[in-house]
Design goal:
Neuraminidase; 4-stranded antiparallel β-sheet; mainly beta
Amino acid sequence: MKANGVYKTTNGGVDWQKANTDTINLLMGGATFSLNSDTCYFTNNHSLYKTVDGGASWTKSFNFTYEWYHDIDFVSANVGYISDGRFVFKTTDGGNTWEKVVALASYRLMELHFTDANHGWVSGEKGTVLKFTQ
């Protein structure tokens, strides 16, 4: 991702093609996560977007509560997590619906990494580190 577009490669990084991002505000870009050559997620300060056609088109999958950096991690085609301020949300249907699984009273969360559908780590402000087990 760059300020002027989201780029993809189909040959290990030798060549890069710009994806169609006309409907996405790239100036407030955040994280990207690719499941395969067709399915990718992209966050900006306001929304989560998903493509299933290699970036030719994007659909909004989630509206964030907080204007903040949002991280995303998927452990399978269906199970994924996103950070949103003081919250972490989980999907079990490829991003169609999201359920709040972590809610902190304070301190915004930033990075998250999961080893499987029920175990992961989340970090945030002021040294916040959470071990997630479900």
